[in-house]
Amino acid sequence: MLNFNVPPVKNSTGEPVWKVLVYDRFGQDIISPLLSVKELKDMGITLHLLLHSDRDAITDIPAVYFVMPTEENTDRMCQDLRNQLHESYYLNFISAISRSKLEDIANAAIGANALTQVAKVFDQYLNFITLEDDMFILCNQNKDLVSYRAINRPDITDTEMETIMDTIVDSLFCFFVTLGAIPIIRCSRGTAAEMVAVKLDKKLRENLRDARNSLFTGDTLGAGQFSFQRPLLVLVDRNIDLATPLHHTWTYQALVHDVL
Known about the structure:
alpha/beta, Rossmann fold, 2 domains, five-stranded parallel sheet
């Protein structure tokens, strides 16, 4: 993405193309654990700025945007196009952008006579935060939205629950698109985990149904859905305490020993 969505050439000795990285808080959370300021500079990033900060026009270098496709963010990107802030624009969305928002950006580009400056538009499917090689989390700026407390509030409405489930499913879907594999899903019945599993299953099936636009086919990902080495996704509700039986036997003696 930082190399304009082209694989970097390892033997290249020339200077990188200098560019500006513009991200929102979500993008910042994703990039921070992965890349240091020095590594960003080695990739040609001269400045990294928040989307909603006061930014001056830098008209002689391209800008790489890495943001969530929210209404607020797309409005600000349209404003940047109208203000002619950069030489060219590489728009990378953390989750898939809807057609209506894409049309809004296109209309703004036409209105600002900046259509040729929008170089690439990509859905990156990176809506998860990688902390280690084998560990990622879904928690982001809206950490109060996706939390144990939020799901188990007594006054939670059906609409709020749907929003939480959709957010979790979107992040998990992004993870498996990045992995290039379709999981075998297992979950406990009658819990929030089952709701997530059903929604994720539906989203995966809908994507596979459209063979031409499937995210799990093509040379880049390998034969994801045809592979027998499919990962197992176990979804467990946090109300089920798995740690305790693993630590000791399920007896009163062990409980007393732990507490006292």
